[in-house]
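Please predict the structure of the following assembly.
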Amino acid sequence: MLADPVMTQLQAFVAERDWDQFHSPANLAKSISIEAGELLECFQWSDAGDAEETVAELADVLTYCLLLADKLGVDPSDIVLAKLEETKKKYPVETAAGRSTKYDRLSD
Amino acid sequence: MLADPVMTQLQAFVAERDWDQFHSPANLAKSISIEAGELLECFQWSDAGDAEETVAELADVLTYCLLLADKLGVDPSDIVLAKLEETKKKYPVETAAGRSTKYDRLSD
Amino acid sequence: MLADPVMTQLQAFVAERDWDQFHSPANLAKSISIEAGELLECFQWSDAGDAEETVAELADVLTYCLLLADKLGVDPSDIVLAKLEETKKKYPVETAAGRSTKYDRLSD
Amino acid sequence: MLADPVMTQLQAFVAERDWDQFHSPANLAKSISIEAGELLECFQWSDAGDAEETVAELADVLTYCLLLADKLGVDPSDIVLAKLEETKKKYPVETAAGRSTKYDRLSD
């Protein structure tokens, strides 16, 4: 189970402020995109981002991801591992190693 | 600590394929935005997203978030909890409860 | 041709500040995503966005789109019309009318 | 006025398919973010994107931008020029030339 103490604290934070009403899956998905854009902004003009700001923005993306997982009733660790199994098949080591090519072009 | 077994498996997956060379913080930040867009697509025309697809796309966003945390040498749980402390101050229960107003307008 | 007066003014603005050095296609693509996130923020918790802010953020997205078109040496009007021709084939009126279904599922 | 022939064709395309019902400002804002992510994907692992794909994805972002401008009853050229005037003040040539620094840090 991923970070139960974290989820418990996030749930308490949300409940205290009566914010669950705003946390539809759609609104959380929008929030994840919005925070992802703020994270990307750390690298807007350069490949070297400020470490502190990058960590802060990453924390925001992760927070909304955990809230969405909770809303969907899934465990973040479980879904990452499940997806990893699928990805291993799409990108077999033999053909994918050392290449950033997308899976649908691996045999080009 | 957030999901050590997950991080260990992700690291093995990346190492096997010699993909670490592509995982600069900048490239991982771009990847998070890209996957966030695919997650958002589940809700493009409707507030009701297909549950299975939403979970799959959320898993992708989370995966890249974990890879970035690892690359930055931070623990995902720790940074989420640290950010939560800051957010509690920006949104005190007394003024923020039940309102989706952004913190810089809370006293309007 | 799309808004030559606009492109001329944008080019002058960029040249005056010696900013072309930052306007690689990759950096402009990141900028478009970043501004798209700020536009989306107008609708983060509600379907009703503030009109003034929405227009301001849309202007930012459009600005970077025009800069990227210029950098790629293409005319925005031309590429939109060219893409429209392709999209008409993917979404024939007979099957697509009144439905938001993505083209690869239209015959489900 | 920006590309009236383009807007006229886009409006006809949408009307023929009875798609205006899906084009709330919120849905169009989501669509812009989604397409921006697909554009960004051209540069996910490298600063060199495939020219043809980049143009195609940029066309998609622009298309949704034009649809949103139309929905909001504003002219794309006008709002870009209006925003440019504001940006000129935030980034005076004297302090901003040759620097990618954000306006709130220009005098650091």
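The first helix of chain D runs from residue 4 to 16. The interface with chain B takes residues 22, 27, 30-31, 33-38, 40-41, 43-45 of chain D (CB under 8 Å).
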